[in-house]
Predict the 3D structure of the following.
Amino acid sequence: HFPWIPKLRERIKNLWVLEQRLREGDLPSREADRILPQCEVVGITGTSFINHTIEGLLGLCKNAYVVLIGPTSPLAPILFDHGIDAICGSKIIDPDRLIRSISEGATFKEVTGVRLLTLSKTVG
C-alpha cells in the first residue's frame, strides 16, 4: 500500500490514511469530510481519477498543500489550476524495457524503463 508511511509517522504528529480498501491503521474513506478540511498537507493517489473521487476530495482540501501521488497520476500541469500543488508520477522512457520487466512479473519497484518525476506548481 504505502511503504513510506511508517517513516512519515515517526516525523509527523497527525498522519491519517483514508482508504476504500482498509488495512491496519487506515481510516475509512467516508471519514474524508471530517479529516481533510483540517489537514495542512494532503496526498491523493491518481486512482482517485479512476474511482471518480478526485473532485470531492479536492473540494475538501481548500487550505491544504495537495500532492497527487502514484504511478497512475497524470503528469498534466493543467491540474495545478484545479487545486493540486505537486504531482508525483511516472513517465515511460523505454517502452521495450518496461514491457519486458512487466512480462517477467516485476513489481512496480522493480520495473525498468520508467522515470519517477515530480512536477511542482509555479507560484507567482
User: Anything to note?
Assistant: The radius of gyration is 16 Å.
